Amino acid sequence: MGNLFAKHTGAKITDSDRAVLTLKTQRRKLTVERKRIEGVIEREVKVAKELIAQKKRERALLALKKKKLQEAQLDKLDAWLLNVEQMLANVESAARQSKLFSAMKQGHAALKELQKEVTVEDVEQLMEDTAEAKEYEDRVRQLLGESLSADEDAAALAELDAMEAEFLKAEIEEEMPAAPTHEVEAPIVEAAAQQEGVEALADPVEQLRQAANQREGRVLAVEEPIPA
């Protein structure tokens, strides 16, 4: 039946699988035997108590001796069970390590295959091809730039001049003050002129200049000869 199940699933039974199965079987058998011996010990104790109650001391002693033998056998079973548990743990740990090593080995093989597909020489060739393609593209752009006609060069220069003129005009307009948007009334202009005259008279230097001009005018009038 086990062979049919293995053939149906396609799984391969290894020696470690057989060892694990054997150890688990032995552990199960030892566990069953241990429970049987524990039952025997409990029964011998019960029989010894009954015999003591019946004043049958020798038979009670015999029952207790049997109990001691079963307890010694139970100690042996515990030691065997411990050994089986340790062996089972070791085998399972070794199986896990073997699977881990196999997985790492497969991963290393896959990595080597991938490295074969992309070699250092392939990468260097790719970089060289990319550099050549970029150089070719730059050369084509340069040739296209040099193939412009004289009219196209003149048009580009004229467009540059127009853009510079617009830029200078915008700067001048920003620096000039804004013109008034309404007319200034006449009384306001006259008042401003009178105020400027008052401020001019208030200046001492201007007053001295005007007095000197008046004296020069009177002297010229006195020195002028009277006509005959």
Automatic annotation (TrEMBL):
Gene3D superfamilies: ESAT-6-like (1.10.287.1060). One of its GO terms (cellular component) is ESCRT III complex. Keywords: Endosome, Membrane, Protein transport, Transport. Transmembrane segments: none annotated. GO terms for biological process: late endosome to vacuole transport via multivesicular body sorting pathway; protein transport; vesicle budding from membrane. This is Uncharacterized protein. It is found in: Endosome membrane.
